[in-house]
Amino acid sequence: MDQQILSAISIASDPRQEYTLQGQAIEFLQSVRERAPETWQVALRLFLETDSNGGRLHSPQVRVFALQVIDDLLEKQSESLDSASFAALEQAFVEYIQSEYIFGAAEASGPFIRNKFSHTLALLFLCTYPEQWPTFFTSIFSLLRSPDAASIAPLNPHISTLFLRLLIEISGEVNDQTLKAARTFDAARHARDAKVRDEVRSRDAAGMSEAVLAIIAEGEERLAGLRSQGGGGPEIEKVQEAVEYGVKAFAGIVPWVDINLTVTPHTLPLLFRLLSDPDIQIRLSATHVILRIVQKGLKEPSDKLNLIRVLSLGEVLESLEEKTRSKTAGEEMSDDEVSYREGLGKLTSGLGQELAKLSEDMSIAAEIRGPSEQLLDQLLPVMLRFLADDYDETSTTVFPLVSAVLGIHKRAKKNSPQMLVTEPKRAFLSSTLEIVLQKMKWDADDDPYDMDDDEKAAFETMRKDLRSFLDAILYVDTELTIGAVRQVAMNALNALKSGTQIKWEDAELAVYLVYLFGELQKSSKEKGRLAFIQAPPDVRENKERRKEVDYSLMPLTLQGELMLALVQSGVSTYPNLAVTAQFFETVARYGDFFKVRKECIVPVLTDFLDVRGIHTPKTELRGRYFYLFHRFIKDVRQEIPSEHVPPLLDTIRDLLLIEVEAPEDDRPDIDSLEDDPNVFGIFDSQLYLFESVGTLLSLLGPTPTDQAVLLGTVTTPLLTGLSQAIQAHMNAPQALLHVLQAHHHIRALGSISKGFPDAPVPTPPGYVPAPWVAVFKQAAEAILVCLEAMNSQRLVRDATRFAFGRIIASTGAATTQYIPTLMGRLLSQFEPPELVEFIMFLGLVVHKLQTEVFDVIDELLTPLNNHISTILAQPIDGTDAKQMHLSTKKAYLEFLGSIMSGPLFTVFISERNNSQFVNLMESIISVASDPSDPVSEKVAFTLLARCTAHFGTPASAGGSGVPGFERLIYERLIPLAFDVPASPNFNIKDGQTLSVLVEIGVFLKATHKARSQEVLDFLVNVFLPSKNCPPEMANDFVAKLRDLDTKGFKKYWADFFRASQASS
């Protein structure tokens, strides 16, 4: 087998080999690893074999593979190795260590083998300690120094490095929580790790800790000697690496060995000296190990406090922070210094968080909490200096501590709302607030629209975190926070207004703070316009009074003043994209301000319309600006003077040109475009612009002729483009470009219509449609022509539903004549997912037009019910089919519900549909009986309640009184209401199932409203006795059904059901 393995490795690692042959070689090697219990001895031989000169016979690739096979053997061991296998491995590995690490070159030709062997040796240790190899550590300790040398002889550097790597591997395996979280939990492994930790603690922890510290100390001493002699090069690098490994190994054992072994009069001075070592990696490792010590889990809070006192880190950190900050004052920091300050920041944060836990836990004695709070207060200035660091990477290291400290203040405020903020606390909050606002600024050299996405995301995440600090300070001291934010924003805006030049990052921050100000005021009860003006009490409390007042005469609130300063500052002209982008975000967010200061509307519209706004050449901004412009127009539309509409439209017209990009040639079909959210480019955002056009045109109602003419000037180019797309498609049916052109033009027409108000429903007597309705009727006819020509294209069908949904809403009864044709053409060809969208479209039509579409729904209902019943009866094959089945069922039930909830319900018993009424009810009952789909089951019971209310109420009582419906109530529906929750599959602990139970209660209440005393008599005399319900429970049930309102009965019904379950 040896030769087979060698040949397979050679083939697998040779890129010149045939692919098939390489695959076979890899498959063979995988089988060798899978059969590790049988093949490990061959692997061990390949790893250890030597040539005639004593060197390793096989290549590094072969030897690494050999160790992988042994790893597989050891990782599969849930118990100890058999004695023969253990003896062979122990002897082989000890002899290998002696020959290679004591008398040899320690794998100098293949350094990666050293790391791999350390891992394998660690796995062997975990399998055999302590039962089979109790002397594991003592054996390693004995090799650290030559047995025939004096005790003061230098430690063997090769063995030392092996020992440290081994210790890092063992700590990682038994205690590293990150590694454990990445693995699938294994109870046996978990128990083994715990046992190993316990055994090491009781047997070898002292020697292990002593050995590590000896290696570190000796390395430090050698470094000092080499540095004093001016030494350098490979020798000093090796020693530095050894010290770094030593500190890392020590950090690995700190969390799981006794604290008395790691915190001693010898270790602390050593670690603190290393904090100032010239080598950055040693310094970083030292910060990490001290952080591990600080975070060491201790049972008693007093022990933790004593540990922190012994460490005396506060003074150390203050000194090191000042030293590292002043060291490069006025200069750009080196990467090493930045990394070190990050390490110190993490250490500060870790120490502070431990103190915060001690100081706030009320279960801890006051004599512990008090000193902990004092130590935390002493640490806060250092925390703030790290928070204020110019480098965001350093600043963010103390974010967890800042959050913890502000959290303490928030909770104190919550527990004692009337408590005054002390001067020391206010000073701290003020300093923190100043730093937070400063850190919210972009760096001067940044360009948010020309920088790496990850860097931009990192800053935005940091700003979000800083915003949470701002919120916390606001909660504790609202006056301080509001004042500081207002001052920073106002200073910058006033400077711009006066013509003073300010930095772009200061301008952007000012606008961003105005954007945030509304959220900082979210606790205020004043919403809408009242958030921006100081209204007298009679205006604040009387909605009718608000309609009469002149808001422009009222003084502004702080938020109103900021918005006015924003508009008047001229910041929108600042020559920086980030500043103008934030400006547009802000004005679009606070549309209500412009209703109290209407003179600001036109200046902002002007800003939106030029190259700063929707005409910007920056594509990624233009799409966002289309949306913000739409949002602004929608909010302030009632305040825009109608005379401004024509010139506004003229300014926008060049942006209404629809440009369609040809799809990639390798796309298999046009429908695949539907699954790509980016395929339409900026067109999806352009639709907001078309809707804004509709909104602006709707303002011309007082001049209806001009309104229709202007609308026509916008729709005519779209209709022409649509006609051209149809003709082009007829000439080249396979060309995807023409389908996209049709899709875009149809959706644009629908978006314009969306900007108009909804038509009145029902149509009032004498109502005459406005002239613009005729324009949309023309558009509807053109869309139907396109649908007929391209109804095989899903994109066109989807666009047609989209457009008609909006055209019907705005034109009302004027376009209902097109619905039958629309339905016929949509249903002539469709894919299963479209059925749900079609049903939802019908629901929208019913909701918008109600009785206006009675004839259409009357004609459509029976064939639609038959069609959907056929689809739902089909076998379900696969997850996708099941999801589609559930979606279709739910959508259809909701469509029926939209009919039943309004005046259209009589369509179910019309002359055309009456014969199918029983089948329809059977379908609903079938869904209500199916516990596998509680969502649809609930909707079904809602429908049954409405059917009972409409068709079960006698005509004499104001209902429709369908003959025989009362029999359905007594023979089918009431038994169903009790049988469903009694089913063994009905799990009331499930939230969705509980909602079904509640809806059944609504249905039962509906039966009483419909049949009154009759249903009570049926329940108490016939039905409940048949269910063996005790008479007193039956009488109580009908009394509650009679006397309680629906809300009260729903609760009672749930309790009744639980009681009946308990008694059964």
Can you offer a commentary on this structure?
- The protein has 1064 residues and is mostly helical.
- Among the domains are: 77-269, no CATH class; 477-609, no CATH class; 642-830, no CATH class; 913-1064.
- The protein is built from 48 helices and no strands.
- Helix 18 packs parallel to helix 21 (399-415), helix 21 (399-415) runs parallel beside helix 23 and helix 39 runs parallel beside helix 41 (879-900).
- It is globular, with a radius of gyration of 39 Å.
- The two termini are 70 Å apart.
- This is Exportin-T.
- tRNA nucleus export receptor which facilitates tRNA translocation across the nuclear pore complex.
- Residues 111-281 form the Exportin-1/Importin-beta-like domain.
- It is found in: Cytoplasm; Nucleus.
